[in-house]
């Protein structure tokens, strides 16, 4: 929910309000949405933000954080937000608009780039937790109240970065105060106890109240209301603030301090509330009192709907009792404030800020793309037909369910286990969904449009009725956020109630048809975790018109798959030369001797005779299929299973540089190809909606582990290099030429895809056309020449003079 200015106030006085703490040997409740964002913001590298998401790097940060918790015997339970409540929709749209505006400031090689979360970041965060076996639960709606209730009931700290937890009576550890290193609990030189802890700072309400001479705990919800939150706009208390000499220009931390002092001298809760209402116009008092009541209810820690999904060892622990909530007698307060009980309140309207994008939007094109995909050209507003959802309600008690929309138990269960995207809940309860803007070419049609047919299929499965319309809030061609009205896809699809009756083969067939997968695609030769990724490539190729998806784009994705799913699985996560040499340098020397003696590389076998050569074989892709010798490429399984550590070592140097920012972008940012970035943003949208469809169809294909398949920086660098080189085969030879097995894996995947659907050749690029600054007149035109932004290939050949020498790194050993 958020309390305006409170986090800044506390952080500016952290020595006074926060206490040093050693976190160890305890359960913790983690705010999943908050931690996902904080790990990306605090540990992400800004120079890579423009490339659409380095999910491999991000996943490694997440793993390291939870491994640190495990080292200190800290047992986490991660709780995620579910769908949006109606009161949040305007805030969500405002944030989407802000994000869209920020994207123009995201440049490669910039250390000052704003933090923009990639599209699939939260999915990757959850996937890593599931991979690590960390317990996760997803609330039906906003999670703050349930997180606080769990933290209080089980007497364990809460990790988050949300000002609401300063109001809840819980042990709150702000995430930015956590040091990302485990320290010995006792500073004995031999550390014989083997116990570790994490240094952080903790906030306890009792300590905070004592700092103000024993301020009454019941005043804290009033503090939240007076500062402004999702239920009460701060403008409602304009008269109250003006009498305290607190205006718009008063810094937030000073406003907080003055209000706390006022509450400290206001007596008890009832007298403070009466004095607040007494300074308001009479016609506003009843409405404001109800909003304050709702604020109090939110902080009461009463709501628990996901408790049964907690780990057994936590549930069996002896919980504390939840405190009785503050009770407000509405009629008594109204009488005390001298208001007639019979006063009608439905004509009362409190002045609130409204969202208006008219200043940021340009005139829109009146042409609809198709009958089922129309653009609403009116000012952005919330659909009045959307259902109200009160915070604290669970999914089965929403108005939709009460009026006949049945939510199957399997869907509710999978939602609460965090296996289904929250977009599904938004479509169910709000008939709305929201598209996260990405870094893309703003002169091309928005990247989300390519996957709208998949989204309409999702809507059809969830709502079924062809007469319904879902509001889809997304970027338009002018980079403003607007509402698209989407109808369910006009095709025969199962609904939520009968999906479970469909066979696995039937559900798989439905998914493959929606993804436009050709009938002759030999999917079963591939590992299970590759299948959905490769199937999505077909949809992406067939449905993307601008920019044209070429063989270079497709080969870039396949090379990224090899880099993350095969090489990283064998060698572990390595992104620095020295790290690689320390781990694999001896093997490289041994391979060099064999190469000099003209022996075949395979003559040394794939055995690892030293600790540095041990592979992370538990992460290798599994291949489970029923193939006969007549199946095309039936030998692919044995080829893939034969790839070992040495194959990855000999190719690693060539792959490593593509994980890094290219040197030419550091010196000349105009070389950055927005059309290529746009193409991969389109792919991410397709993959996102394909994964949601897969979950709604009860996973006929194994869900993608995105961090083991896609890295924005890597695919961009490989794509750019191939586009700018005169000979694509030369680039491929430099990457794969030293391992016949990896080369055959790559060529087989490309062959299977290109056999099923022809791949376009990349356009000839000999010169780079420097794009001229667009005039105001040009800006309104629907430009068709944006794809002509080209990069000069002169000098690029120099990048390959030693790529076939797999041992060039040995000079550093």
Assembly type: single chain
Number of separate strands = 12
Helix content: 40-55%
Strand composition percent: 5-15%
The total count of helices amounts to 31
Overall average residue pLDDT = 80
**How are the strands of the largest sheet arranged?**
4-3-2-5-6
Q: Which structural class should the secondary elements be placed in?
A: alpha/beta
Low-confidence stretches: 326-392, 399-404, 599-618, 767-813
- Alpha-carbon Rg, integer: 29 Å
Q: What is the makeup of the main sheet?
A: 5 strands, parallel
Total domain count: 4
The 3D shape can be described as: globular
What is the terminal separation in angstroms?
A: 54 Å
Layout of secondary structure:
Layout: H1 6-12, H2 14-17, E1 19-23, E2 26-31, H3 32-43, H4 55-71, E3 74-80, H5 89-102, H6 121-132, E4 136-138, H7 144-153, E5 158-160, E6 172-174, E7 182-184, E8 196-202, H8 205-210, H9 220-227, H10 238-243, H11 252-264, H12 269-278, H13 282-298, H14 312-315, H15 330-336, E9 373-375, H16 399-402, H17 409-416, H18 423-430, E10 432-434, H19 452-463, E11 470-475, E12 481-486, H20 504-514, H21 528-543, H22 551-571, H23 577-596, H24 636-642, H25 645-656, H26 663-667, H27 674-696, H28 712-724, H29 728-736, H30 740-756, H31 776-779
Parallel strand pairs: 2-3, 2-5, 3-4, 5-6, 10-11
Antiparallel strand pairs: 1-8, 7-8, 9-12, 11-12
Helix pairs in contact: 1-11, 4-6, 9-11, 9-13, 19-27, 21-27, 22-25, 22-28, 22-30, 23-25, 24-30
Domain XPG N-terminal: 1-99
Protein name: XPG N-terminal domain-containing protein
Biased composition (Polar residues): 781-792
């Amino acid at each position: 929910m958020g309390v305006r200015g409170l986090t800044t106030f506390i952080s500016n006085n952290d020595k006074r309000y926060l206490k040093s703490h050693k976190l160890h040997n305890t359960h913790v409740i983690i705010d999943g949405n908050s931690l996902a964002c904080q790990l990306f913001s605090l540990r992400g590298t800004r120079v890579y933000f423009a490339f659409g998401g380095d999910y491999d790097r991000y996943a490694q940060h997440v793993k390291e954080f939870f491994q640190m918790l495990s080292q200190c015997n800290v047992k986490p339970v991660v709780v995620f937000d579910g769908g949006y409540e109606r009161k949040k929709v305007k805030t969500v749209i405002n944030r989407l608009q802000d994000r869209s505006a920020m994207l123009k400031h995201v440049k490669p090689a910039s250390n000052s780039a704003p933090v923009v979360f990639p599209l699939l970041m939260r999915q990757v965060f959850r996937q890593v937790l599931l991979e690590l076996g960390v317990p996760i639960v997803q609330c039906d709606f906003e999670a703050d109240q349930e997180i606080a209730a769990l933290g209080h009931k089980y007497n364990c700290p809460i990790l988050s970065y949300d000002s609401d937890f300063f109001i809840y009576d819980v042990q709150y550890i702000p995430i930015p105060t956590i040091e990302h290193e485990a320290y010995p609990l006792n500073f004995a030189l031999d550390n014989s106890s083997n116990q570790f802890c994490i240094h952080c700072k903790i906030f306890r309400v009792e300590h905070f109240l004592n700092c103000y001479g024993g301020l009454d705990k019941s005043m804290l919800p009033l503090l939240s209301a007076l500062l402004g939150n999702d239920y009460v706009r701060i403008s409602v208390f304009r008269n109250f603030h003006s009498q305290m000499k607190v205006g718009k220009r008063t810094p937030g931390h000073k406003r907080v301090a003055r209000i706390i002092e006022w509450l400290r001298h206001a007596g008890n809760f009832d007298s403070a509330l009466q004095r607040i209402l007494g300074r308001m116009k009479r016609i506003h008092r009843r409405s404001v009192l109800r909003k304050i009541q709702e604020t109090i209810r939110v902080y009461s820690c009463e709501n628990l709907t996901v408790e049964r999904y907690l780990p057994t060892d936590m549930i069996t622990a002896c919980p504390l009792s939840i405190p009785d909530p503050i009770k407000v007698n509405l009629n008594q307060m109204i009488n005390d404030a001298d208001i007639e009980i019979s006063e009608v309140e439905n004509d009362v309207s409190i002045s609130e800020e409204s969202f208006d994008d008219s200043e940021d939007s340009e005139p829109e094109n009146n042409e609809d793309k198709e009958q089922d995909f129309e653009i609403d050209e009116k000012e952005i507003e919330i659909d009045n037909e959307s259902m109200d959802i009160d915070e604290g309600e669970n999914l089965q008690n929403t108005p939709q369910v009460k009026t006949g929309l049945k939510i199957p138990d399997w869907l509710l269960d999978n939602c609460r286990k965090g296996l289904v995207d929250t977009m599904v809940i938004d479509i169910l309860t709000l008939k709305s969904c929201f598209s996260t803007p990405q870094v893309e070419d703003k002169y091309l049609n928005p990247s989300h449009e390519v996957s709208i047919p998949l989204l309409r299929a999702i809507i059809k499965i969830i709502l079924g009725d062809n007469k319904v319309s879902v509001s889809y809030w997304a970027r338009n061609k002018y980079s403003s956020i607007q509402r698209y009205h989407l109808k369910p896809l006009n095709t025969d699809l199962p609904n939520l109630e009968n999906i479970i009756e469909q066979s696995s083969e039937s559900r798989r067939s439905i998914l493959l048809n929606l993804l436009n997968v050709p009938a002759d695609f030999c999917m079963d030769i591939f590992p299970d975790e590759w299948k959905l990724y490769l199937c999505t490539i077909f949809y992406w190729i067939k449905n993307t018109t601008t920019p044209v998806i070429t063989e270079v784009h497709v080969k870039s994705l396949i090379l990224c798959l090899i880099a993350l799913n095969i090489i990283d699985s064998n060698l572990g996560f390595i992104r620095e030369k020295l790290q690689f040499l320390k781990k694999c340098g001896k093997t490289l020397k041994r391979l060099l001797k064999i190469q000099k003696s003209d022996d075949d590389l395979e003559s040394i076998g794939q055995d690892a005779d030293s600790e540095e050569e041990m592979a992370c074989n538990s992460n290798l892709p599994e291949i489970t299929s029923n193939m006969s010798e007549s199946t095309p490429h039936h030998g692919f399984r044995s080829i893939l299973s034969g790839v070992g550590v040495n194959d990855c070592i000999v190719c690693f140097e060539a792959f490593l540089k593509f994980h890094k920012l290219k040197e030419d972008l550091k010196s000349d940012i105009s070389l950055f190809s927005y059309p290529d970035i746009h193409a991969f943003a389109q792919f991410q949208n397709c993959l996102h909606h394909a994964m949601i469809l897969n979950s709604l169809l009860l996973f006929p294909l194994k869900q993608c582990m995105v961090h083991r398949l896609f890295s924005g920086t890597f695919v961009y660098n490989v794509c750019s290099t191939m586009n700018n080189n005169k000979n694509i085969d030369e680039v491929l030879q430099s990457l794969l030429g030293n391992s016949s097995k990896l080369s055959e894996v790559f060529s087989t995947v490309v062959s299977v895809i290109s056999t099923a659907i022809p791949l376009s050749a990349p356009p000839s690029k000999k010169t780079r056309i420097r794009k001229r600054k667009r005039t105001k007149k040009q800006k309104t035109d629907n430009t068709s020449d944006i794809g002509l932004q080209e990069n000069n290939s002169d000098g690029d050949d120099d990048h390959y003079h030693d790529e076939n020498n797999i041992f060039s790194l040995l000079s550093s050993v």
